[in-house]
Amino acid sequence: MSRSSSARPGALAAPPGGRRATASAIRHTAADGPLWRAVLAAARPHSRNGPYGPLRAPDENGIAVPEGFTVRVIARSGYKTAGVVWHSAPDGGACFPDGDEWIYVSNSETSLLGGVTAIRFAPDGTARGAYRILSGTSFNGVGCATPWHTWLSGEAIPGGRIFECDPYGTAAAMPRLSMGRLTHSSLACDPDRRVVYLTEDEPDGCFYRFVPDEWGDLTSGTLEVLVTAPAGAGPIVWRRVPNPAGLIEPVRSQVPGARRFERPAGCHFADGVCRFVTADGLVWSYDAVHHRLEATSDAASLIPALVGDTGELFVAGDGMTIDVLTADGTAAPFLRVTGHDSSAITGLAFSPDGRHLYFSSQRGAAGPASGTGGVTYAVSGPFGRIGRG
């Protein structure tokens, strides 16, 4: 990716104008993680087979999908894909447009050999190249695509870093230490207020926001942590973290009165609200417009807001399944992986044209005992084009 002449040193410039999606009317999206599993668990089962009909018998890969859809393996951990060895424990992922082609990036949630790998796809959906965009990091689980088409990958370890990566493989990945060294759990961009929200994977984790000095450039800025008055009373305020890159005094201990949550995760921003789920079963909503924080145990009440006008939301469940969730609060099975009982579905993302859904079985059939069991798939078919069942 070529750098803008006005970009500051270390900044990753926005992609050229040609790097745009080729389809702009996609009526579905995909997500995985704790927040989405909580919402899916609260949904009502569909009265019939859902919008795409019943699942067929599992194919040669042990995957069941409705009629009209096909599944193919695009990468296996420890094996070469388009000339590059695919990483272990594939986790968070996203797709980035590049003219009539696109790129799928995938985190690696493993120690020391983590990082991010990218695969470039031709217009017909075939892989035509792969490359590493981040190496030498650990437990990269959390990820977030920025509005300027870079990928933020965070380490889920104490003192972990956020790296800003170039999906197009031109610029080197850059550590964003001003965003905080902590056990990163999830990230979400708020383009309206020009901030990035972060949650912390600790039993008593905090909720942060990073305010860059210049939107589109995460080189420098201010990290703030959410603070409440004693006993939870009073207004919500944000306070600056004095030393976000510090390791001697942990980031989470630098601001007295920082609000604590029970292992916050699953950060998502839409329509002025940032939501995240906690291990005690609550879904928290931070209203960034009115500076209010509310919690609910009724995740089903959030379905219309989360699905929104996308029409359909494809969500990874607790088992090896992907369900389709609609704004009316119903869910139906779309995909089931058999024989991967000790794995998890990760990295859901649609190609820009909406014709291909990517996901991984993080540990594969071998489970956690194998470091190279992960498998990444592409599901292709008539998404959003079938009448409701």
TrEMBL record:
Gene3D superfamilies linked: YVTN repeat-like/Quinoprotein amine dehydrogenase
Region of interest (Disordered), residue spans: 1-24
Top-level lineage group: Bacteria
One Pfam family this sequence matches: PD40
PANTHER family: DUF839 DOMAIN-CONTAINING PROTEIN, SLR8030 PROTEIN
Protein name per the record: WD40 repeat protein
Organism name: Thermopolyspora flexuosa
